[in-house]
Amino acid sequence: xxxxxxxxxxxxxxxxxxxxxxxxxxxxxxxxxxxxxxxxxxxxxxxxxxxxxxxxxxxxxxxxxxxxxxxxxxxxxxxxxxxxxxxxxxxxxxxxxxxxxxxxxxxxxxxxxxxxxxxxxxxxxxxxxxxxxxxxxxxxxxxxxxxxxxxxxxxxxxxxxxxxxxxxxxxxxxxxxxxxxxxxxxxxxxxxxxxxxxxxxxxxxxxxxxxxxxxxxxxxxxxxxxxxxxxxxxxxxxxxxxxxxxxxxxxxxxxxxxxxxxxxxxxxxxxxxxxxxxxxxxxxx
Length: 285
What we know:
single chain; alpha+beta; N-terminal domain of MutM-like DNA repair proteins; Helicase, Ruva Protein, domain 3; 2 domains; 5-stranded mixed beta sheet; 4-stranded antiparallel beta sheet; 6 helices; 11 strands; 22% strand; globular
């Protein structure tokens, strides 16, 4: 699943690479992932100019001239590919935008779990249409997002928001209604950096643990973003995770204590942690 660091770097890449690009054609190869809320995307998007890319949590929004946007929720398996038109179209390609200069921007999703929403963004130039208000509220989960993890949320706000949730801290961290942008991989990294068991109940966290967790939520993701800026390049469709310290590294030595990293798999979710550095019970009564 692309998370805040991945999407932040992808956003920066698109803003640098697609500036003033005009969409020459739009093809939908897998209609199940597309929701054309403003108009038929294949007929309405061509001719519009790319304005910029924006990120909110784990959503990426591509804004175009004339008051249109593509809001992308990649979920577990979605990705964007910027490549030459001559590059073979993979079976998992769902949407293809021809963006000039012999280049394509493609949305890939082999399990078709993500969604691409074509919406009005409520900006001037929406062809003078009546009812040109923004359609963000029609995108599931978007309007309910909490503050972005990289937005500078204060410790006080962090603590106040956490009080609204029950359950294990890892599950709460990945809920966009708490703070947005954290998924399965980086929740493992944050909790490892904070020395907190992923199974600890969020309401059992001590004040000093809350302070450390608040700090590491931002610090871990900022450091990961810097690493991805130097590693991702133009291969924005590839997931770069080999530099992570614990996630998906079960059985390997813990970088802090040298013991083996524990890894559990349940409900299509990997949880990786160090039992020594993140003490706590797996099952709490």
